[in-house]
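Sample A.
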Amino acid sequence: MQVLLDKDFRLSGRDTQTNIKLNFTIEEAFNFLQINFTYSPGQSSDQVAQDQVKEAILKYSLTQGARDRTRLEDFLPVDNFITLSLAKDGHYLGGYHNKSKDQKILISREDASLGFWPVDHLSGQWEAQLNCHCIASKALSASLRIEGHHEA
């Protein structure tokens, strides 16, 4: 096993609707990649989440009456939502849009985890992208570790 990428992130509400691109190169003939992606917390009711809900209520309530009847508490907690997508040699390999905050993704020549395509060979130029759909927390910790494995 060889660690190809090991990175920790500290994210906040400012990172909502942004993408974090991480490039890495694989030169060895690995049998498969194992990608571990985690983040915490999964949900938030803090001030960032409350401000996001208030903004959405103002933006999407068509009348003042609808706004007056809407209770902030009915929309809390808000889910933090980050997905991972992959590309190799400029070709999109997929992404798995789910709310799991602990993800394990496997990619090989024969098979791949749900949402991803297998590849002919693992060597090449890779891009992992964290898609920060919603960060509703003052502070969110995330970790991405990509390993190349020789054993089957």
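Sample B.
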Amino acid sequence: LPATDKAKPKKVSDTVYQLEIPDADKDVTGDYKVVVSDDEGQEAQSSCKLTVKVPALEFTKGLEDQTVDAGTAAILSVEVNSPPKEVKW
């Protein structure tokens, strides 16, 4: 697997190798497999499933009561802990 922005293969020692995913998101969820071979062409492989859990969407700052004068702008705002897929008012 070539190095990408999402996954970086790394040799830790002669017998330890890692695939580092520094900023895991839902895009890297899936099945992963590593195949190793020796000078005689013998291969061994191992696989695993990677599931990235996304935190539940929550308001970090909710709507607040406001009073405005007629004819002036009213701005209602909220903050959430991660980008929402959709916002409806």
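B remarks: The chain has a mean pLDDT of 91. The CA atoms of residues 35 and 45 lie 4 Å apart.
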